[in-house]
Amino acid sequence: MLLDIDNLFKSFPGVGNTPPVEVLKGLELKVEEGETTAIIGQSGSGKSTLLSLLAGLDLPTSGTLKLKERHLNSMSEEELTQFRAENIGIVFQQFHLMNHLNALENVSLPLEMNQQQDASELAEKALEQVGLSPRKDHFPHQLSGGECQRVAIARAIVIRPALLLADEPSGNLDHDTGEQVADLLFDLVGRTGMTMILVTHNSELAQRCSKQLTLSQGRLQ
Fold first, then answer.
1. Which of 17, 53, 138, 217 is 20–30 Å from 123 (CA)?
2. How far is CA 89 from CA 124, 190, 204, in A?
3. Does an H or E element contain 199, and which?
4. How much is the average pLDDT of 106-119?
5. Contact 129, 208 (CB under 8 A)
6. Is the pLDDT of residue 93 over 90?
7. How far apart are CA 27 and CA 137, in angstroms?
């Protein structure tokens, strides 16, 4: 079992005298290596909260979250940062590229943070996988939205993550470009056997995953 979430709760403090707001309520999720899982939910259902927990960017109020048999919620901040850098790749809706770095440098960044010796070479291979080798010296403002998302995908896969998280990966693109990016993402995942969790409100995109779950009332169904 690659990912094992058991009885997960996440609440946030209320405002003033109001009680805490429970967003996730006893959530359960098990993901095998190589699986693709779509999590669908309406705005405000807790998708972003769950994604932050999966990415190790936030900690649950209670319950267990295990990735590769490691308890994320019992790690120190330093351990969690290192574990995340080595095992979790994230594709955001808004790209989150560094504007002062070119495409190759953006993709190299996670490797350099891990002090990888051949960072540039591996980054160039990742750009080649997403069809952007000729644009490696271009900066984000010189790239289209679709190209920026390809760079973001290359950055997420360059570490060969145990878990790839995709947050509305085509949500910030026009329909045709979004379809092309989705095709690329699923092709890469299929060819490499990566484990992916896709968070989306797009039911058509969700159907491309091997498993579809709906987040509602703080639980997955």
1. 53
2. 17, 16, 23
3. strand 195-200
4. 90
5. no
6. no
7. 44
The separation between CA 210 and the C-alpha centre of its own chain, rounded to angstroms, equals: 17
**CATH for 215:** 3.40.50.300
Distance CA 149, CA 217 (A): 31
Distance separating alpha carbons of residues 150 and 132, to the nearest angstrom: 8
Distance from chain centroid for Cα 101: 21
Which structural domain range is residue 106 located in?
34-61+86-220
pTM for this predicted structure? 0.92
Q: Rounded to an integer, what distance in angstroms lies between the CA atom of residue 180 and that of residue 167? A: 16
**36-40 and 195-200 beta bridge pairing:** parallel
> Are residues 27 and 8 in contact, defined by beta-carbon separation less than 8 angstroms?
yes
Output the CA–CA distances (angstroms, integers) from residue 7 to 4, 74, 213, in the order listed.
Answer: 10, 15, 16
